[in-house]
Amino acid sequence: MTSTASPYPSGSAAFPHRGLVGIAGLEPHEILFLLDEAEQWVKLNRLSQKHDDRLTGLTIINAFFENSTRTLLSFEIAGKRLGADVVNMAVAQSSIKKGETLIDTAMTLNAMHADAIVIRHASSGAVQLIADKVSCPVLNAGDGQHEHPTQALLDALTIRTAKGGINGLTVAICGDIMHSRVARSNILCLTALGANVRVCAPPALMPANIAEMKVEAFHDFEAALDGVDVVMMLRLQLERMQGQFIPSPREYRHLYGLTEKRLELAGPDTLVMHPGPMNRGIEIDSSVADLVDRSLINTQVEMGVAIRMACLDVLTRSVRKVEGWK
Which residues are designated catalytic? Predict the structure, then answer.
């Protein structure tokens, strides 16, 4: 019986990072390692018995200082399916509301001897600040306009599953690029894996330094869609906007909404993605979001649980003293 040699370095060298704060700084093979690790969990999650006990005895804290539905549920399900004790920290009842500093909160969490902490925060850099103060792995579930690494990983896994690979594909990311940590992490992830990435937004929602990110920038939505393999729509993040960035939601849909007619311009095999939550009838029409053979939106949710299981597994291997890991 022959065994296939692993394409990755052995042991902890396959993913030598203590936590996952961002896609920036990851090598392409490290990204691929996490995607490959997630494949086993995709299979498990489709079984009637969706449980593995490898994290039994470990405690994971989900500290979400910013509201979330999909990401919080996904991390909670991921931890519980791996057998961990999962604690969700209620922000509205936390001492942050009483004036406690973020560093004091970090020190408090560290004193509780958690084995991993998942953090979501409205301020860019907050996750790194906490990661520097605690002794356990920290996973970034989104920090301000900085990064959302597990979203980018689940999007990459979704594309790879649907298209058979990522290298050489053309992916258009369209919408509120300026305020989107999802866009930033996806650009970093997809370009690292060899995709040609286009970004499209109104001038007011396009970052001034976008050319530095090795993407092709468009303001004309229909031109951006021409010949793409995947189109990823983004939500207008009105809560992060200070000032008038768009004339009106109606005008935005007229110029940048993904309709069935516009999808036809992209090509017959173009697939549709959206990280959610969706503003139906603004950045994407329901008739497009719900296309059975073209929309990957529900697949993204499915892949999110698998990716987060993989990240929790990989980042706690040193705690569990898995053979070959430091």
Answer: 70-71, 98, 120, 148
Rounded CA-CA distance 43/21 in Å is 26
Q: Are 250 and 291 in contact (CB under 8 A)?
A: no
The per-residue pLDDT string of the chain (326 residues; one tens digit each, 9 = 90 and over) reads 445 678 899 889 999 999 999 999 999 999 999 999 999 999 999 999 999 999 999 999 999 998 888 999 999 999 999 999 999 986 655 556 556 788 888 899 899 999 999 999 999 999 999 999 999 999 999 999 999 999 999 999 999 999 999 999 999 999 999 999 999 999 999 999 999 999 999 999 999 999 899 999 999 999 999 999 999 999 886 554 444 566 678 889 999 999 999 999 998 999 999 999 999 999 999 999 999 999 999 999 999 999 999 999 999 999 898 877 87
Enclosing H/E stretch for 143: strand 138-143
Instruction: Indicate the pTM of the whole model.
Output: 0.94
